[in-house]
Amino acid sequence: MEPTHISDLPTSVLFDFASGAFEPFLQYTQRKVSDLHEMFADQQAVAEILKNGDRLVYDIRYHPFRTSNSDMSLGVTRIQPGTIGGEYHMTKGHYHEREDQPEIYFCVHGTGYLLMETRDGQFQAAPWKPGAITHIPGMWAHRVVNTGSDELFFVASYHLAAGHIYAPVVERGFAQIVVEQNGQPVFLPNPRRV
Ligand code: PAN
Ligand code: ZN
Predict the structure, then answer these.
(1) Start-end of H helices in 35-178
(2) Domain 14-193 part of CATH 2.60.120.10
């Protein structure tokens, strides 16, 4: 399905709090371990998983609402619980191409952290649980980490004009990684940067 609908009428979709899905959506994307293989610190653990098959880390339903003179995208991401080499499942993470294009993230289900970082080295980890709503200014890269034993769902809203830049995150990751130690999330300096 191509996100080509243009309508100047108000539009609603229906969100299901139990599954984290909404209908109708115009685009559906899955990101598996193979799509995220560079993101995890323990490359041997990634290779082990991929040797025995792939698995889903998260999926996203999108509805880009377009009118004749505006756009506003809705996205709902569902991150599966789990770890790879001890590092919790997480989104790939990205910067917005346009630094004047912020985003709202709303945690609906699950627990974790929203990691945010600027190009000049500021780093923040917002603890997340259902009800947490975070405004991410346009210059902050953003990644969500699921540290719970259940799925984590969050709603995102942003302008399509924001654009996504993944390369700096693929190359360097975020300042810190979140790993499970004795059943608890612990923040460690990103080994790729030390
Ligand atoms: C979100 C993200 C979504 C998936 O809609 O695109 O959660 O994360 P990655 O794009 O990092 O794989 C958003 O931030 N849009 O701008
Ligand atoms: Zn974004």
Answers:
(1) 43-51, 167-172
(2) yes
